[in-house]
Specification:
Strand content: 15-25%
Order of helices and strands: HHHEHEHEHEHEEHEHEEEEEH
């Protein structure tokens, strides 16, 4: 694990979060009017969550967490960023949608949750999350340990194949490099994506944002993710790929297929830009590990 790099990322996210939310208008009014930031893919993966205890990992500023709560779930959101958790807590109060938000490095949060015996029916994570985590084994075991037996992990993420391209669609980066990648800092991707990530209406907000804190990303291939979840004792139930990315305008000439689904230019071939996983906890995690990785029937 590289907790020192996680801490550097916390500082970078604190700065970027202020810029991101400056573009999103009156978010409390958006939620009071019945708004939701969830895409159909997440809703399908999660299923009916009314009355369930849902853990939202790396919840950012809480918009998706509140959208989950609006669907009847008892939601706990966790994020490393002080700014994000403070904003999420305010947004919950101002919107009138109840949810709990906790600031912590995710790995430390898992340790504390294990000791406290906390368990959830669903664990959820989406879009640009695991690239900030230095150890997928710790992540996957943490998920398995806080799921109730029969509980499910629902995950949607940008496809690692898309990360080999530069902004002009030229192959430039290694697929899933094993060493962390140093960046100038978390950028203002909300400004870059415009209305695609500002569901309540885009505002100019902070202009020309430059992050004063560098960041470090950890790039994982799909096999890395799937194997980590299997090794943690979870049973894979769903694996999907999508030829579009929800709300993310990452490359030149992307076109909106409708509903914020951004695809490559029409002249390009179809490419996987997003993928999704649902994994279930069968029996207890301890029993799975005692049997050498064979889940109980």
């Amino acid at each position: 694990m590289s907790i020192d790099l996680h801490e550097a990322n916390r500082l970078s996210w604190n700065a970027a979060t202020v810029a991101h939310n400056s573009h999103k208008g009156d978010q409390a009014a958006f939620f009071r009017a019945g708004g939701s930031t969830l895409y159909p893919e997440e809703i399908e993966l999660l299923g009916d969550i009314a009355g369930l205890d849902v853990l939202h990992l790396q919840c950012n500023s809480g918009q998706d967490s509140l959208s989950l709560a609006r669907r009847g779930a008892n939601v706990t959101g966790v994020d490393i960023s002080d700014e994000a958790i403070a904003f999420a807590t305010r947004l919950s109060a101002e919107s009138g949608i109840a949810a709990a938000f906790e600031r912590s490095d995710l790995f430390g949060w898992f340790d504390a949750a294990r000791k406290a015996g906390r368990r959830f029916d669903r664990v959820f994570a989406s879009y640009g999350t695991i690239c900030w985590l230095s150890d997928l084994g710790v992540w996957a075991r943490g998920i398995a340990d806080v799921l109730k037996p029969g509980g499910r992990f629902a995950f949607v993420e940008f496809h690692p194949f898309a990360m080999v391209f530069d902004q002009g669609w030229k192959p430039h980066y290694d697929y899933a490099p094993k060493d962390p990648v140093a960046e100038a800092g978390v950028g203002d991707y909300v400004a870059d994506s415009g209305a695609g990530l500002a569901h309540g209406g885009y505002q100019e907000g902070v202009v020309g944002f430059t992050n004063p804190h560098p960041s470090f990303e950890f790039n994982w291939g799909i096999a890395d993710v799937v194997q980590a979840l299997i090794d943690a004792g979870l049973r894979m139930e769903v694996l999907k790929e999508y030829p579009y990315a929800n709300g993310w305008v990452a490359f030149e000439g992307m076109r909106d297929l409708g509903g914020g689904r951004m695809a490559p230019p029409a002249a390009m071939p179809s490419l996987p830009l997003m993928y999704a996983i649902v994994a279930a906890k069968v029996g207890s995690t301890a029993e799975y590990r005692e049997k050498g990785g064979r889940p109980s029937s």
